[in-house]
Amino acid sequence: MSPSGSSSPLPSDHEQNERQRPTLAPPARGLDASGVAMREPSLYGSRKASLALDIIVVGCGIGGLSAAFCLTQAGHRVTIIESYPVLGEVGAGIQLTPNSTRLLRRWGLGEHLKENAVRPEGIAYLRYNTGERIGFTRMGESLEREQGAAYYHMHRADLHKLLYDLVAPHVTILLGSTVTGCDPDPISPSVTLESGEVLWADLIVGADGVRSRIQRIVSGEPNPAELTGDAVYRTTIPASLLTRDPELREFIEHPQMTGWAGPGKWMVGYPIVRSYPFQVLTRTS
Asked: Which percentage of the chain shows pLDDT scores above 70?
């Protein structure tokens, strides 16, 4: 933003982009995917868009990073805007089904998934009060052969970091930048930041979560969450504690997703690997 407080256009100069990129904590060994896009074949058969667009992606989560990567591989210039000043560990386990791992492998992350995720043998369903198995679906290699891609369990923060490392060298990321307004003008759409700065682009992509401000602009009405009366709790338990207990050891030794079914309640447990810390700090001036 200029000293007078006037708005500024979306930056396109490469040097300015480098200055705005956030500082990254030391790369996590085994999880750094920053060079994958340079080594792997481009998407879309190496085809590029005939006209490169300036695109703003609002939200630096899994969805925003995935969209940004595909757009940059097609030759577009992307700026990601994120309200949080620091990106770090959020959530716990996440299940990656073949329809998603197929894409991640296409993006060059296949080996990273093998090294930093768990491929379960199957899904078991148990009675909550007796532990009796009432159903089992075999997965593992058989599912991979059938679907052409694997099913994995992974820590959400590890997936987030893989995608961040994949995308960050090719985009501008503005952390600590809250979007307070969006003008969907068809000729020159823009977003307004909490600071008062206005950024213009050819296209704006909303990946800003369940309370999406961009979604409200597109739909023209709010989309509030509906109270269902349900509550969800999640936690992680160190594998070292489970292996000490003879009744729980099998959940580590034979990795699978286990679901306990009860009246009005449901519990799911599955093993994950927590590889390395992930923290991206706000950009430096």
From this structure: 81
